[in-house]
Amino acid sequence: MAPCDGELREVAPIERVTEVVAKGHSYGIGELLADHELAERFVGGTASTIYLHPRDYHRVHAPCDALAHRVSLIPGRLLPVNDASIDYDPRVFAINERMVHLLETGHGWVAVVMVAAFGVGNMSCPYHRFDPHPRELQVARLEPPSRVGKGAELGVFHLGSTVIMLTEKPVGPVEGGNALPRKVKLGEALFEGAKP
Questions:
Q1: What is the sign of the dihedral through the CA atoms of 96, 99, 102 and 105?
Q2: Which residues of the chain have pLDDT under 50?
Q3: Please, which residues have CB within 8 angstroms of residue 176's CB and are 6 or more apart in sequence?
Q4: Catalytic residue among 58, 61, 101, 128
Q5: Exposure string (b/e) for 68-86, b if CB count within 10 Å is 16 or more?
Q6: Torsion-angle region of residue 17: left (phi > 0), alpha (psi -120 to 50) or beta?
Q7: CB of 167 within 8 A of CB of 131?
Q8: How far apart are CA 30 and CA 100, in angstroms?
């Protein structure tokens, strides 16, 4: 399900070299997650990019029932994530400040990456408190993992930006869902499930 309201702009494969190709460019998943070892888990999976307009609902939710094993707050820039910026350099997603929720699900591992942007006050998480705009990587390993139900809140943008959802396995769009970009609503089915 869609973890947030927004515009689904890209559904792209995660390549062998842990890169996702977006708009003819590529950026490293290891850089996005600030964890190259974790990035290997998502090779062969799918990266879905949802842009949140300032008028959208700015809360991000669990796409399915899950165990939250880790949440990280990664320091970075607050560059704009508009079309012109992304066309110029899609690495902006891996340069800007990010909050990464690592979830174990019945469909494999999922990473929900909240990417901050110009004008974002900060991001917050209901199951772990972070100081806003860190200067160093902050990683909270949740022991035991926190159980989150489908639709449970993962985080809040204090304004808007982008969410990138990584799946461990490749997924296919729901029937009629190939046209991009398209508006999506929280809870809307995005995929049929993991491909064999």
A1: negative
A2: 195-196
A3: none
A4: 61
A5: bbbbbbbebebbebeeeeb
A6: alpha
A7: no
A8: 12
| Contact assessment for residue 162 and residue 81, using Cβ atoms and an 8 Å cutoff | yes
Based on the residue annotation, tell me whether 36 is a catalytic residue of this protein. Answer: no
Total residue length of the chain: 196
Of residues 48, 72, 146, 161, which has the active-site annotation? 161
Let me know the angle formed at the C-alpha of 60 by 112 and 16, rounded to the nearest 5 degrees.
Answer: 15
DSSP 85: H
Active site residue 85: no
Query: Alpha-carbon distance 77 to 54, whole Å?
Result: 19
State residue 108's pLDDT score.
94
In this prediction the pTM is: 0.90
> DSSP code of 87?
H
Please state, in angstroms and as integers, the Cα–Cα distance from residue 119 to each residue in 12, 114, 158, following that order.
27, 14, 9
The Cα 141–Cα 132 span in angstroms is: 18
Strands 191-194 and 6-13: unpaired
CB-based contact 89:96 (threshold 8 Å): no
Three-class DSSP category at 83:
helix
β-bridge partners, 78: none
- Among 5, 56, 58, 107, the active-site one is 5
Is residue 158 among the annotated active site residues? no
Tell me how many degrees the CA angle 103-151-6 measures, rounded to the nearest 5.
95
Cβ count within 10 A of residue 195: 11
Domain borders along the chain are 6-194
